[in-house]
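Hey, can you fold this?
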Amino acid sequence: MKITQLDLKVVSIPLATPIPSARIVIKSADCILVTLKTDDGLSGEGMIFTLNGHRLPMLHQMLRSLEPLVLGLDPRMSGVFWSQAWADIAFLGHRGATVVGLAGIDMALWDLRGKAAGLSVSHLIGACHASLPIYRSGGLRLSSSVEQLQREAEGFLKQGYRAMKMSLGKPTIQEDVERVRAVRQAIGGDIKLMADCNQQLTADRAIRLGRRLEEFELAWIEEPVPYHDHDAEAAVAAALDTPIASGETEYTRHGMLDMLQRKSADILMPDLQRMGGPTEFLKVGHLAEAYNVPVSPHLFTEMSISLAAALPNALIVEHMPWFGPLYAEALTLDADGRVQVPTAPGWGYTFDQKAIERFAA
């Protein structure tokens, strides 16, 4: 079996309501869908994305630049591609667009390997979990009023979620405290509630805010300070009883090892495209396990589920609904608010061709 074609399709998924974040207003999630085709009819799928289409052509070209390393390859020898690509991008570095391009092809290779073996990705690796806790992300934003926060949180409960995440970062600490109080009152004490600061705070402000929020028993406080300031993250983590989660903006095992050595986070959040794909993602998961640190994957739910299922230290997976419309299979929760790990060959989630046509850019 040999790979004969690298197919790239660009899609733009408009958000129903633009999301004001800490740095930009998010209007769309713009993706490059990666499909590797073989001479025996099998294909594997992966995906990378950016926000509002920013630098999408650059990512497209990055993927094309790696094409010579994957054409003609036996997908069962995917480690050959990864090691060669890792060496090939070294001159420009193992961060940013180079790693993201590597990730898209690596994702498709893992899907292809699973399909060739007739196994789901989690079973291909060796699964630890048949189902996983999942939390709803992408809502409970800073732009919502207190009343809107409560209504939206109650709506997530009706959808079956037993965990959800809200945004922090209002002008005053008291405003953030009151917003967390309102959501906690709306969902009760048994529901996991996380809070994301989106890197907006200084260490001292994060510590003062975190101490005020202790009574609400948050599952974690996420990215309280700029992600690259691992010493400041470590200071916040040491000062608070509430766990600090971070790592979604860091790159590869080298960035994550730095965080682990500095004790920058109680929970690591590897992002599948910033890790460089599943191959490196799994290395990070096992590295964190060696430090007795749990992981919670960032985004890419349809692929992250299978990878998290193979990690003993996987804590919970994130569901950001942006990419759901691209897939033929819908994500469903059980009565306990958990998601079943796919058992179909490969990722268990496949691109919907009609959706690709609808969102084509």
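Oh, and this one too while you're at it.
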Amino acid sequence: MIIRPHLHWFRMLLAWRGSVLPQLLPRLSLIFCIAILAVAAHDHLLPISLNLNTTAPFSLIGIALAVFLGFRNNASYDRWWEARKLWGQLLNDTRSLIRQVLTLPNNPLPPEEIKAFTAALSALPHALRHQLRKSDPAEDLGARLPTPLFDRVMASRYKPATLLLWLGEWVQRQARAGAIDPMTVLAFDRNLNGLSDVIGGCERIMSTPLPFAYSVMIHRTVYFFCASLPFGLVDSIGIFTPVFAVFVAYTFMAHEAIASQLEEPFGTDDNDLALNMLSASIEDATRDLLGEPALDLPTPEAEDYLRD
């Protein structure tokens, strides 16, 4: 994801990184060439009329297409926002568990037990991020977990769930040792269940894309509309057809491209969630509650933009 500070309205007009324009340039160039061909055919090449010189059919198709694109964008944004809420819940449950470890036991826990618990809890968002992006978590987990737990997690297929299992085992060990009472175990279990809900919610979003037929229908309609639009504009606006055709094509194609990025919120496209930053922020929150030094988190004010 591209993370950048709020831009002045004029700089927003010229923003390049983080927009979908770079990936649309080849397609817009094709529409521009089609529009040039439509102008040439209208003025010089074809003595007969193509009967596309009325804009009424294009107005009707454009309105219907805008409605479908609106539904597609809303559905994609709902997935993106739900994913962001799940990662917000991950932060809240992590803070609650750290607070419980520090305040609820009958007697202060040994520092090594607190360190082991918080290490596993800090590693969980990194493990979840790598699972969602299907990347290798060895470097991030190796820097945070003790060797026995690291080996156990790396040997599993679902690494966040394995970390969650270990956290539950830690709570049971403390209960058997008499450090926490049964009511406190239930309090821990509620927050551990919250973490399980987060993991399952993220897996559900990742494994259930929008219906393919719906996306294909909109994709085909957008490109057919944009390719035929110059022939409907040429009779009324003449040599300005390429300019208006490209602008309209940019509007429709950009909406489809943005929806495509938001549909998969855990990827590495410019408009996906900044999971690297979110993982580091959750880890930094645990360090703050433990009184440890803050992580050096980059901010968008330090640069024109940040690539997560």
